[in-house]
Amino acid sequence: MKIRYVIEGLLFGLMVYAGYIGWAILSGLMLTRSYVPDITERYESVEELEHKVSFGVIVEPNWLILAGSFVLLAVLYYVVRTWAAKRSAARKNPDGR
Question: What is the pLDDT of residue 97?
Fold first, then answer.
């Protein structure tokens, strides 16, 4: 196992998650800036509230799932990087030496 590829894989996973968290923060900031509360005209009638039904479940991310997906990203990067290095070495040395 090449330690360099493992470190690169971990850094790749960290960069993906940092980008994800950064995007969540940025979009939250944009939504907060553009939100304008309008309490007086929010619901024109009570009938809309009586007939409004929401379906679905809001799922909070589980830290175990996030950690597992981080490791999966790191392993995937390691496998692809190792495969690319072997392929590059085979192209440079076609006779197998």
Answer: 57
